[in-house]
Amino acid sequence: MNALAVKGLCKRYPAFSLENVSFSVPEGAVMGFIGRNGAGKSTTLKALLGLVHPDAGEVTVLGKSFREEEQSIKERIGVVLGGIDFYPKKKVRLLSDVTRRFYGNWQEEKYRHYLNLFGIDQEKRVDQLSTGMRVKYMIALALSHDARLLILDEPTSGLDPVSRDELTELLRRIAADGQRSVLFSTHITSDLEKCASHITFIKDGTIQHTGTLADFRQHYDYLRQPGQELTLEDIIVSVERRPLDENAII
Ligand SMILES: Nc1ncnc2c1ncn2[C@@H]1O[C@H](COP(=O)(O)OP(=O)(O)OP(=O)(O)O)[C@@H](O)[C@H]1O
């Protein structure tokens, strides 16, 4: 079964359109959602979660229609969009107290386990946690209510290489049970080489390619020079980069 299926998602802003976005995240997959600045990654994630109203499209989570069963679906997903910067002075303990009330399936022993595993001190205020710790805390909350699908918008941005490595390993291991799945947007293609099983590539509001990492490499194999090993970064740069006008005054 797919953890997430998005079909024909459209969102029109005056100067930007998300056009007919379709892709699916199989259970057990870690899908990297890539595209350059302004390609429409955040708009897609917000529109599929109903945080901005889509103009068209169907979203199915774990076989259920998001539109028809939004409340029960929200129990099964964990969302990290832009962190928890809006409660900087609140203690972790207080945020957790508020969060656990929202979830009928909250599991306190799991919560304790993940806090311990990630080394998060409940007595700290949010502004005393590092950026990486904040992301881990949000993931701990999601896993404590048994989320089957994690949706994260640029979780590794602003993290040092060691924290990024820890986080990508964590995402990979979350999905390794074959039951949980991860969709995360990023610019940092080297992170995907470490943890993604699937890639969706968006450009100017339109999906360019979606499938397994191996399919993705195969699809863009024509860009490879003889003897060259193509990285994901090479592929994205080749597809996106516009040559600078030779006559331009610099
Ligand atoms: N509320 C809004 N009203 C009008 N235009 C918007 C709105 N939100 C986003 N946009 C536009 O939609 C386009 C896509 O933005 P979006 O944030 O989805 O891109 P992104 O791929 O997530 O970029 P980045 O990697 O820089 O975060 C941009 O041109 C942005 O200006």
UniProtKB/TrEMBL annotation:
PANTHER family membership: ABC TRANSPORTER ATP-BINDING COMPONENT (PTHR42939:SF3), ABC TRANSPORTER ATP-BINDING PROTEIN ALBC-RELATED (PTHR42939)
Indicate whether Nucleotide-binding appears among the record's keywords: yes
One MF term from GO for this chain? ATP binding
Positions of the ABC transporter domain: 1-229
Q: Which UniProt keywords apply?
A: ATP-binding, Nucleotide-binding, Transport
Q: Which InterPro entries match?
A: AAA+_ATPase, ABC_transporter-like_ATP-bd, ABC_Transporter_VariousFunc, P-loop_NTPase
PROSITE patterns given in the database record? ABC_TRANSPORTER_2
Protein name, entry field: ABC transporter ATP-binding protein
Q: Which Pfam families match?
A: ABC_tran (PF00005)
